[in-house]
Amino acid sequence: MKLFAGAPGWTTQADVIVIGSGVAGLTTALNARAANLSVLLVTKALIDEGSTKWAQGGIAAALGPGDTPEEHREDTLIAGAGLCDIDAVNVLVTEGPEAVRKLIARGAVFDKAESGEIALTREGGHHRNRILHAGGDATGAEVSRALLAAVHNDSGIEVIEHALVIDALKSVDGRVCGVTLHVIGAGSSTGVGRALARAVVIATGGLGQVYSQTTNPSVSTGDGVALALRAGAAVADVEFIQFHPTVLWRDTAQAGQQPLISEAVRGEGAILLNHRGEKFMAAVHPQADLAPRDIVAKEIFNQMREAHVPHMWLDATSVKDFVGRFPTIYASCMSNGIDPKKQLIPVAPASHYASGGVLVDLNGESSVPGLYVCGESACTGAHGANRLASNSLLEGLVFGARISENIAAHLAEQSEPVGDGDEARILIDPSIRIPLQLAMSEGAGVMRSEKSLRATLATLEQLGTRHTEKPGVDAWEVSNLHFLATAIVRSALERQESRGSHWRSDFLETNQIWQKRIIQKLDIDGSWSSTFEAVKQ
User: Fold this and answer.
1) What is the DSSP string of 450-466?
2) Are 454 and 489 contacting, i.e. CB atoms less than 8 angstroms apart?
3) With CB atoms 3.0 to 4.6 Å apart as the test, which of 12, 385, 413, 464 could cross-link to 81 if both were Cys?
C-alpha cells in the first residue's frame, strides 16, 4: 500500500539513505561514513529541528563509581514492566558507556562537578546517579551540536533538508532499495523524486502529533513508521505511548507542542502538589516524586480527574540555583508568566515518547530486507512497556552504531526498483488532523477503556473515508497520522490489562497472560493483521 503522489521526476543515489537528523540518524550516518560508505541524509525540516535538540533530560550510562551495566539493566527492566527484551537491554547497557565516550570524543561537552569529573545526576526510575547532562537542561541541543559539526565536516554525507519521505521503493526480490521523497517548497506539490540506495535507515523520531497535546515538535508525525508499515514491515508495542507527567499547562485551548518540565527538576528536589497543596506521590510509590514516568503520569491524571481540575502543581521553589541549573525551563516558565523560583508551576501529562515502533532485530533491521530503523521509530524491545528516563538518546547512539556496522558487513548491490503493480494507494484530506488528534487524546490517551477505544476507532474509520486527490505535505502527514493512530488504538484494544504506559480503566491489573508483544502488519490491500510474540526474558 502506498500514498497517492506524482511520478518521480528526478533521481539521486548513495550507498546508504538515512532519514532523520536526530541522534539516531546522525550517529548512523557518521558510523556509515567510518565504514567508507556514501550517505544521503534526508531531513524533514532544517537539519537541527528534530526532537533530539528538545531533550531536557540526559543520557543514562553506567559511568559513575560503583555503578554497573547490571544495575542499569535492572532499573530498565523494572520500568519496562515485564515486556523488555533482555538481549536488547543487555546491548543497550553494556555498549552504552563506550557509545557515550565516543560521543565525547566527537566533541560533546557535558556538565562537570567541582572535581572536574562529569557530573552525574538521577532521574525517575534510576537507583544510581548515572545521567549525564549538558547546559543543565539542554543535553539534546549539545548532543545535536556535536554530531552536526561532525556531519558538516564530512563531504561524504549529502544533506537534503525540507524533504518529506513518502514511500519505500523495492527491488524485484522485495528488498528496499530506495525511497520516494518530496523537497518541500521546491517545484509543484507533486514534484516528487526518488533516492536509490543499498540500504535505507529510518530515524524519523516520534509520532507525538497523533495527540492534541505533546512535547514533540511539529515535524513528529511518524512518517518513517508509517512508511515502514506500508512497505510491509511489522510494528510492535505501539500501544505503549509514554505521557510525560510534568508538561507546563497553559490552558485547554493550547494544542501542539507544549513546554516540557524535565523530571530532572524533581531530581533536584521539586515536589508535586495536588489542588489542596498536598504532597501525594509518597503514598503511591516508594520513590515518591521520582517514581517511573507512567506511575507519576497516572497519579497526576487520577488527582486531576477526582478534583475536576485541569492540572496539578509542581513546587520547585526549593531547587537550588534554578536559573543556572534549568535555564531553558526557566525561560519557558517566565515566557508564560510564571516565576518558578517564587511560584508553583501548573503541570499536566502530555504525549511524549513512543516506546514501540517498527519491530527490529539487534542490528536494527526490520522484517523487510534492506530497511533498518533506529531510535524512537524502532521497537528494539529495550524499553518494553515504558521507557526508563534518559535511555532514549542512549538507544540512538548504541543502535545507530550497530546498524552501520551491519550494513557495512552485509552491503547489498544496488538494484532498480520495480513498478507498484496493483498496489492500493490512499491519500486522506488534511482537514481531519484536528478531529483525529482530539479523538486520540480523548479516547486513547493516559487512560483507555474498551468503550473509549471503540469510539476512537469508529471516529478514525469515519475520518479515513475523507479522501483527497491533491497530494502535498499536509495530506501526506495526515495520512501517516491516520495509519499510526489506527495501529495504536487496535493494539490498545487487544491488550486487556494495565501495564507500563498502557492503562485500561476496565482492566486495572497487570495480567501474566499478556506478557507478550502485540505485532501488527498492514497488507498490500490495506487490511490489518495482528499476531503475538513471547518476550525473551
Assistant:
1) HHHHHHHHHHHHHHTT-
2) no
3) 385
Contact 412, 198 (CB under 8 A): yes
C-alpha to C-alpha distance for 522 and 508, rounded to whole angstroms = 30
The pLDDT tens digits of the residues spanning 384-437 come to 999 998 999 999 999 999 999 999 999 999 999 998 766 889 999 999 999 999
SS (H, E, C) 128-168: CCCEECCCCCCHHHHHHHHHHHHHHCCCCEEEECCEEEEEE
Cβ contact 201:372 at 8 Å: yes
d(CA 356, CA 241): 8
By the 8 A CB rule, do 228 and 509 touch?
no
- How many residues are listed for the chain in this entry? 537
DSSP letter at 106 equals T
Q: How many CB atoms sit inside 10 A of residue 24's CB?
A: 34
Convert the pLDDT of each residue in 325-372 to its tens digit: 999 999 999 999 999 999 999 999 999 999 999 999 999 999 999 999
What domains can you pick out in the chain, each with its CATH number?
A: 12-240+353-409 (3.50.50.60), 246-350 (3.90.700.10), 425-534 (1.20.58.100)
CB 249 within 8 A of CB 86: no
Phi-psi region of 439 (alpha: psi -120 to 50; beta: other; left: phi over 0): alpha
* Whole-structure pTM value: 0.92
- Please answer whether residues 352 and 243 qualify as being in contact, where contact means their C-beta atoms are separated by less than 8 angstroms: yes
Angle, alpha carbons 152-157-159 (nearest 5°):
75
Question: Would you name the residues annotated as active-site residues?
Answer: 293
